[in-house]
Design goal:
By secondary structure, the chain is mainly α. The chain folds into two domains: about 35-115, no CATH class; about 130-355, Orthogonal Bundle (MetI-like fold). Helix content is about 75%, strand content about 0%. It has 16 helices and no strands. The chain has helices at about 1-5, 20-30, 30-60, 65-70, 75-85, 95-105, 115, 125-160, 165-180, 180-195, 220-245, 250-255, 260-300, 305-315, 315-345, 345-355. Helix 13 runs antiparallel to helix 15 (about 315-345). The two termini are about 35 Å apart.
Length: about 350
């Protein structure tokens, strides 16, 4: 009995090895942050899968299709049937979804429905969205890089001067801008900077073969429009969390211990107020993606938003579905990154993740 027990002891080389799945789970449990990232990533994949089904189903149950757009209203049933067969629109919806999803998983985004119907020699969706995606990415990155520090600085500044004239002025401007849609703010900026001052172009078109930074002035008004809409909510949230943090007991204790006010604010107040603001900033960045679509349309900026609007107007199912899927993926990735940052910033959350 003792021999058999010793043979099964964990340290005995003859003992049967632990299943690989359990060893991996034990490794993740010893690293709670990694386990949390795995769980959030798995939930994100499931969410993205559900979103892909909804996107594809919504686009394919609408009346009309690319064949009717290309051939027009006077097309004969025979011609419509031929074009639909060429585009694969005569297949069942599950079969078409399987082909579409399988292509995205393998990295093949497929061909534009309208480009194929029009015998375009370059129908690839990857080729169509490559340049617009780059242009939109430039616009979004510039706006995001400016958004985060401005929101933190202005929100903290307003909190430190709560109920004073500076705070009231910031709140008034924020509430005013938050009530205005992107197209109206963009139009007002065009009036001010083009019609009155004549210092910036009213549209942001990029010549073929050129890049956004070849004419940096065309980026100013779209970026200002995005910031004007996106900053307002984030500033108010940062102000509220900072005021709440300044009222905590540990901040009062730090002041009683004789720490300088600048150190109290920087090390105790702002640092702890930043964690709740991370989720707000993430939500603002997600809203920024939606605002890009409208902003690009206002300034005729050749980005992914303009491409999406054109694809919707022509019922290009493949192009619309791929762009919508990519936007959904970015939304989910932003959420996961925000969750990880919050856990890294708050020790209490790391303890909870470990348990």
């Amino acid at each position: 009995m003792e021999a058999s027990s010793s043979a099964l002891a964990p340290g005995n080389p003859a003992a049967p090895s632990e299943p690989r799945t359990f060893r991996r789970w034990g490794l993740l449990r010893s690293h709670p942050l990694a386990a949390m990232v795995v769980r959030r990533t798995a939930a994100g994949v499931v969410t993205l899968f559900i979103a892909s089904i909804l996107i594809f189903a919504a686009l394919n149950v609408l009346p009309g299709d690319a064949a009717s757009v290309v051939l027009g209203r006077n097309a004969t049933p025979e011609a419509l049937a031929k074009v639909r067969a060429d585009l694969g629109l005569d297949q069942s919806l599950p079969r078409r979804y399987a082909d579409w999803a399988g292509g995205i998983i393998s990295g093949d985004l497929g061909n534009s429905t309208i480009a194929v119907a029009q015998n375009d020699p370059h129908p690839s969706v990857s080729g169509i969205i490559g340049t617009p995606l780059r242009n939109s990415l430039v616009l979004a990155v510039i706006a995001a890089v400016l958004l985060v520090p401005l929101a933190l600085v202005i929100g903290a500044f307003a909190a430190l001067r709560a109920d004073k004239p500076a705070d009231h002025a910031i709140s008034t401007v924020s509430l005013t801008l938050s009530s205005l849609p992107e197209f109206l703010i963009g139009s007002l900026l065009v009036v001010v900077f083009f019609s009155w001052l004549d210092v910036l172009p009213p549209i942001s078109q990029i010549p073929p073969g050129a890049g956004p930074f070849d004419q940096p002035d065309i980026l100013v008004l779209p970026v200002l429009t995005l910031l004007s809409v996106s900053l307002t909510f984030t500033i108010r949230q940062v102000r509220a969390t900072t005021i709440d943090t300044l009222r905590q007991d540990y901040v009062a204790m730090a002041r009683l211990n004789g720490y300088k006010e600048s150190r109290v604010i920087r090390r105790y107040a702002l640092r702890n107020a930043l964690a709740p603001s991370v989720q707000t900033i993430a939500q603002t960045l997600q809203y920024l993606l939606g605002g890009i679509i409208i902003t690009e349309a206002v300034f005729a900026y050749p980005g992914i938003g303009t491409t999406l609007i054109q694809a919707v107007s022509t019922r290009d199912i493949q192009l619309v579905s791929v762009i919508a899927f990519l936007l959904a993926a970015v939304y989910i990735v932003i959420n996961i990154i925000a969750d990880v940052i919050v856990v890294l910033m708050v020790p209490k959350l790391r303890t909870q993740a470990a348990s």
